[in-house]
Amino acid sequence: MAEPLSTDKIEEALADLTNWSHEDDKITKEFTFDNFRDAIGFITRISFEAEEQVHHPEIFNVYNTVTISLSTHDAGGKVTEKDVALAKTIESLYNN
Amino acid sequence: MAEPLSTDKIEEALADLTNWSHEDDKITKEFTFDNFRDAIGFITRISFEAEEQVHHPEIFNVYNTVTISLSTHDAGGKVTEKDVALAKTIESLYNN
To answer: Taking the CA atoms of chain B, what radius of gyration do you get in angstroms?
Structure first.
């Protein structure tokens, strides 16, 4: 089972990413796209990575925006290394 | 531009559907699946219909659940015939 990270560790991890925030025991980012198709394409790409990492984000889509929130169910809904790892993957998908 | 429907008209339309609710000027339903892949598959199928109808839902996914909320931006965020039409389409995707 993944252990919850300390707030310091989370802030440290987020410093390596762009525009992720830590609140309500989740790490979150809103991504913006040119249109709905690109937003759905992003969700689809995330879904393959989520299955591979056996870790699943909360995904919220409204037209050209996708908001991703990450926490670890098995760690009492706290943020763990699994969330940081998936955030890094999602960030790299967004930048490629 | 689509006109907002009266509450009575909305309730009447929802009576033909299953487990949709009307609140906060939206019509909403939570759909449940066997797993994450099926949930993402449902989102993908919805996305094609949304593009075809030129009308886009709010989509919220957590693992095997997908919550869809519909309202019409061009009608001041109220519920219109466009929302009812897309709800019917989404309902039919779920049942097939």
So the answer is: 13
